[in-house]
Specification:
By secondary structure, the chain is mostly helical. Helices cover 79% and strands 0% of the residues.
Length: 67
């Protein structure tokens, strides 16, 4: 295997590693967001039910995501 073959192979591997990194980062952000939404609504659900009304939990909350 010569230098140019190794260089091509390294570029392919680098692209794959960057794709894995981006996918992992997206999954990490989604997991943290989902955990925050679940914790926030579980903490406020008991307080809302004590006032006599229920509110539907929406999964997409842009304010929470941007925060």
């Amino acid at each position: 295997m010569d230098f140019f073959d190794r260089q091509d192979q390294s570029r392919r591997n680098t692209r794959r590693l960057v794709a894995y990194f981006v996918a992992g980062l997206v999954m990490l952000i989604a997991t943290v967001y989902l955990a925050v939404v679940i914790l926030f609504f579980s903490a406020t659900a008991n307080r809302r039910e004590s006032f006599g009304y229920k509110r539907e939990v929406k999964l997409w909350q842009p304010q929470v995501f941007l925060w």
